[in-house]
Design brief:
homodimer; globular; four-stranded mixed sheet; alpha/beta
Chain lengths: 307, 307
């Protein structure tokens, strides 16, 4: 089966303790699409400017990603600059040039309409709702958001959340969205807003999935997957989007959709996130093999499973 | 087999979002001993004052904990006050009255000398070294420390670390001890200082054990255990000591000593820590059953293990 991702494609300038790069291919949709492409067919909906050339598009095409939904608008592609300090926990944004992304109105190509899985990357909630309504036949919708929308566009976001199946956000975003400092209680409040499952990403500590009562099967317990303790994180940019790509890509490739599938997807999300941060930008995600991915999955398993 | 714990016994005043208590039984050795008592025979070495009565001692005796090593000194028992804010991550110390603990000189009763396992709770490193030397026949020594000694008594601590097998500290302490912000690299540096294994406690995210090359078996990967996502943490005091008690207690009760035992011990550490925070002070740790403990162990397993 296939997955459509709607989100940003960008040029990134990144500085981290491991070095500095300029105008490399980035954006949530790019990271997501590359990560998911190792599991299933991926289709992208995004907007780019005149400066987005064949070289950039080829990065996606080489992974057999469908780029027919990437609109070319007059002007420049979204550009972002970020700098990470030594602890790598958060990027300081050095600049944000929205450019053509400012007026992004996602258009779903006719050829995409039969897609079974949808991922709404971090864009304005009204646009997310709009896309979700257009893709009404999907089997499962995943969704990301951020503090900016939680604080500034809560009402619109609440409407979006009623239409999504799995929300993937981090600890801070969960607590902010729920107005609740205790994470499990915050998770329950977020689930009451609409999603059937909530994936909370804990950065270097992995991720936890909470299920709404009765959704995707029975049971009352959440599930936790690790990340790999890495000796060197070169560039954390895109880790969350790569996580989402691994998660959604794995789910979309399974015939069944149940808790066990979502638990394994949580592991694959962590696996793809761990590859993403090993190099600047999408470099590592461009040249993986399924064998490398399954080998790392096995390491994740050994890291957490008793004999 | 049995375990000796050397550390503090105290009276605690605690304020948290869940309430406030005064002069309840606390101290690292108390939490450790109660948690470990569900797995193995526990012996305590500590000092208390005139205000420590039969009521307090009975808490330990009811769990068949050997209190012959608790010295009664003229003066008052160590007293500590702490207040937790809403996020519960760290206590603000409201007062510290060391009292008789200030001159604590651990004395190991003759009857304790055949003990196979030793835990050095967070006390001055010179005292830890001294105790460890006196107990030279032990099979395994566990050790805790804190920022105060890492910053202020590094040389003495370095000597202690050469004599311990498993060091149990948190993320911040690991990075500070190693002068290294990357956790896996910091772990390797700490292992190079002496311990064969390092348990890093991540608070609500669980714990990771790193092994020195070749220690306790083969393999190059660390192992991670979770904590339970709890709807209400009433009082985080003693969580780390209860973790250590569950960890060491489980290890001491096993005939074998290998990586698989230490991995399971990491789970039991998390289990005992999760019980400790459910009530103020040691209340929950006083009245558990082994069935409740194994039930929670099973929940921890379901929380992390794929089918």
């Amino acid at each position: 089966m296939s997955v459509v991702v709607v989100g940003s494609v960008a040029f990134d300038d990144i500085t981290s303790p491991s070095g500095r790069v300029k105008r490399i291919l980035g954006g949530a949709a790019t990271y997501f699409a590359l990560a998911a492409s190792y599991f299933t067919k991926v289709r992208v909906v995004a907007v780019v400017g005149d400066d987005f050339g064949a070289e950039q598009e080829d990065v996606l095409k080489k992974r057999s990603i469908d780029t027919r939904g990437i609109e070319r608008a007059p002007g420049k592609t979204f550009a972002w600059g970020g700098a990470y300090s030594e602890n790598l926990s958060e990027a300081r944004t050095t600049f944000t040039d929205l450019n053509v992304f400012e007026k992004f109105q996602p258009r779903i190509p006719k050829e995409y309409e039969d897609t079974e899985y949808l991922f709404l990357a971090n864009i304005q909630p009204t646009l997310q709702t709009d896309v979700r309504r257009k893709m009404n036949g999907v089997r499962l919708t995943g969704c990301d958001t951020m503090n900016y929308w939680i604080k500034g566009d809560r009402e619109e976001l609440a409407k979006t959340l009623k239409l999504v199946d799995v929300l993937l956000i981090n600890d801070t975003e969960t607590k902010m969205l729920a107005h609740e400092p205790n994470l499990p209680r915050a998770a329950q409040r977020v689930l009451a807003m609409g999603p059937k499952a909530l994936v909370i990403k804990h950065g270097e500590y992995g991720a936890t999935i909470f299920f709404r009562e009765g959704a995707f099967g029975i049971g009352r317990h959440p599930f936790r997957a690790p990340t790999l303790p890495l000796d060197e994180v070169k560039d954390p940019t895109g880790a969350g989007d790569s996580f989402a790509g691994g998660f959604m890509g794995y789910v979309a490739a399974q015939p069944e959709l149940n808790r066990e599938v979502l638990k394994r997807a949580l592991f694959y999300g962590g696996v793809m996130g761990s590859f993403a941060v090993e190099s600047f930008g999408t470099e590592r995600l461009q040249s993986l093999t399924r064998e490398e991915i399954d080998e790392r999955f096995q390491i994740f398993r050994e890291l957490t499973h008793l004999q």
